[in-house]
Amino acid sequence: MAHTVISLDVYCSTTQHGVPAYRLYVDNDLLTERSWIWPAYEVYVKENIEVDVDTGPHQVRIESCGAESNFTTKNFTINGVNQSRDDLLFTV
Fold it and tell me: Global pTM?
């Protein structure tokens, strides 16, 4: 097991009324579910997650679970090292 710090900025865009929400997973493990209560055009949520994972490949996944919304990410880092991948895959 390796102690791993995952950091990413989550942005939301929606055209629907209602409260957008997302779930954040590492592999198949649900780590958090958040309702988006801020104006989508001006803010983002910085997720800072600490997990213990086995060595090998892993994936962070964001799933929309509220009003129809699109969630995107920027500034994906693993243990402080910038990851250039858009698919949120990482290896420890």
Answer: 0.87
